[in-house]
Amino acid sequence: MREDFLHYIWNAKKIQAENLITAQNDTLRILSFGQYLQQSGPDIFNAKIELNNQIWAGNIEIHVKSSDWYIHKHEQNENYDNVILHVVWEHDVAVFRKDNTEIPVLELKNYVDDMVLKNYENLIVAKPFIYCEKDIAHVDTFILESYKERLFIERLQQKCEPIFELLNQNNNDWEATLFCLLAKNFGLNTNGTIFYKTALSIPFLILQKEAVDIGYLEALLFGQAQMLPQTPHDLYTKELQSWYEYLVLKYKIDKPILPPVSYYKHRPDNFPTIRLAQLAMLYYKERNVFSKLIESKSIQEIKQVLSIQASTYWDTHYTFDKQSLKKAKKLSASFIDLLIINTIIPLKFAFATVQKQDIETEIFSLISTIPAEKNSILDKFKALNLDIKTAKDTQSLLHLKKNYCDLKKCLQCTIGLQVLKKII
């Protein structure tokens, strides 16, 4: 059972809503199923229920098991204090509010029609992960490895397209283009767009001028990202606010219109505050980041450029105004690998393309020294007994899945053609 299916059951009202009884043996009536906003906090907002003839209004949380409440550490998050109903597939443990009252639980498995489950199971079974999943591991190793190299180059060519668009937007300034690309990747999937727009909003010449002072640089980045508190409390935060106001007046910088950054589901080391502070330190430490990275011929040289940590304020902070235990906020080896995969190698390839240089051997050497990435798609490829050791393997397979398997382009895929030959 998957949580997203439980969300579907609830939002589509696919439950037998008559004569509901909670796990605590209380009568339950759903007056309003609420809104599924897919935001931080509870799954369902503004629901209304009647419990033992008493009306309750508030939020609903949905889990596969009741114990997931504790696995997700909701008991430590005040956003969940207003949960009026815990909807689960299986009730295995009681969950209590701060006042020690137990949160009512609706166990869905007692109120979902068997046909709904059967249709769901048929849907899941009917869609294989990839159509050649029973045969891909038996494709000739030489053919498979050669094809993966081709897939990797295709992926790089795709990644070059937005780089060239950005380069044109930056009047062919490679340093400015790299800054924007790095900003996006420092922001990860959640805050990447906000960081990217922040970088675009700062003329790169201004950034270079102010990079002689880490305080001014942080003020500029945090200010443009609209991450500075409106009423700062500690001295450094107040200084950043003051410096930012000065820089805006000095350079007449336009403030971008941005949504707030998200901290939700991020570990503290990935908080947007830490990542933006690390980006600031990179440009404080290095004057010509693009030139140094382009000239780097090995992973070790690239990692030397990217071996940074946030300024000393962040040794005792994860967010503004709130002190934490002292810890240097260095870029981790795994995060540097992500930067190399998603920013540095595509940029090197794009630059070589413009310069009409052949650097495929260098690119393959770099990507082959980075460990394999991890995600749910790659886990499924591993389950097919494929040899996945490096980032070249993972990048190739991700490109294969998105651009061939998902689009059913089996007849345009070397693997698909090999499988067809055996079948025929």
Task: Show the helix and strand layout.
Layout: H1 3-11, E1 20-21, E2 27-32, E3 35-36, E4 44-51, E5 54-65, H2 68-71, E6 83-90, E7 105-107, H3 114-126, H4 141-169, H5 174-186, H6 188-201, H7 204-210, H8 214-224, H9 235-251, H10 272-285, H11 289-295, H12 299-306, E8 317-319, E9 322-323, H13 333-354, H14 360-367, H15 376-382, H16 391-405, H17 414-423
Parallel strand pairs: 5-6, 6-7
Antiparallel strand pairs: 1-2, 2-4, 3-4, 4-5, 8-9
Structure description:
By secondary structure, the chain is α+β, with helices and mostly antiparallel strands. The protein has 17 helices and nine strands. Strands 1, 2, 3, 4, 5, 6 and 7 form a seven-stranded mixed β-sheet that branches. A two-stranded antiparallel sheet has the order 8-9. The longest helix is centred in the middle third of the chain and has 29 residues, at 141-169. The model has no long low-confidence stretch (mean pLDDT 92).
